[in-house]
Amino acid sequence: MKIYETLCRLAGREYVLRDEPMSRHTTFRVGGPADFLVMPDRGTLPQVIACCKENAVPFLVIGNGSNLLCGDGGADGVVIEIGKRMADIRVEGTVITAEAGALLSAVAARAAAASLTGLEFAAGIPGSVGGAAVMNAGAYGGEMKDVLTEVTVITAEGDIRTLPKDGLDLSYRHSVIAKRGYIVLSVSMELSEGDPDAIYGRMAELKEKRVSKQPLEYPSAGSTFKRPEGYFAGKLIEDAGLRGFCCGGAQVSEKHCGFVINRGNATAADVRTLMEHIQQVVKEQSGVMLEPEVKFVGKFM
Predict the structure, then answer these.
(1) Given 23, 66, 188, 223, which residue is catalytic?
(2) 223 carries an active-site annotation
């Protein structure tokens, strides 16, 4: 196909895959095939996007796939994965600049190695730094908005702009980036000089909390639902009697009810059905309508 050859010319043939299972590119480990999956570097990303637009080919930009549920019918068109080819991390004084594909955990590790404090909360978050900026990722009292200074993006019109923190409208799991159709290229963060022992100690403490309280041994997308104002999603799900409840291979984690996990043979349909059931039961029991934190993409059968 013409689009395949064009993508190969732009990104390199070894970085363009046909009929690629999305289960290999999401932390839920479910999802049917993408027509094409391309892994560009920073220089070719704008060209790949322009190619899709010029040829009227639908495209989806993903990072580490840690907050996605892709349908069993796969994804039409082109999936653009911002990953290892866009993962450079630079430390200059107390400022860290990371390309969008860098894992947040890797950025936190680099910060610790440079005796910089402020990113300890991010050490166990499985997403990429680009995705973290888009959704103002946070955990254990820390958020990206605490450290972000600016984000460089490609606009919906194809222009490259650098946005200061105060232009991002950062709040709980929200920024203007997705709303305006921007695609993150890189993120800059201002940290503080700190004591290495204290930094590594805090990271070890948070790791122990995650291991003891979260079902890290199973594929999932982390917290499945957003935190409703005044409540905790996991507590609402537990109180609704849904701990361990299953739909096919998908299950409400017995360790932490805020997580829907893939027991090993789940389909995307199993996960979605379970999420909808949770919403219905919690609404009936508490009057609270849970809002998914997981983003649905692709075709659901």
Answers:
(1) 223
(2) yes
Nearest to 79 by CA among 131, 140, 36, 133: 36
Residue 173 known to be catalytic: yes
Q: Is 293 a catalytic residue?
A: yes
Per-residue pLDDT of the chain (301 residues; tens, 9 = 90+): 689 999 999 999 999 999 999 999 999 999 999 999 999 999 999 999 999 999 999 999 999 999 999 999 999 999 999 999 999 999 999 999 999 999 999 999 999 999 999 999 998 888 899 999 999 988 888 899 999 999 999 998 889 999 999 989 888 888 999 889 899 999 999 999 999 999 999 999 998 988 899 999 999 999 999 999 999 999 999 999 999 999 999 999 999 999 999 999 999 999 999 999 999 999 999 999 999 999 999 999 8
Closest CA to 33 of 46, 44, 22, 45: 22
Neighbours of 271 (CB within 10 A): 30
> Rounded to two decimals, what is the model's pTM?
0.93
Q: Which of 173, 202, 210, 243 is catalytic?
A: 173
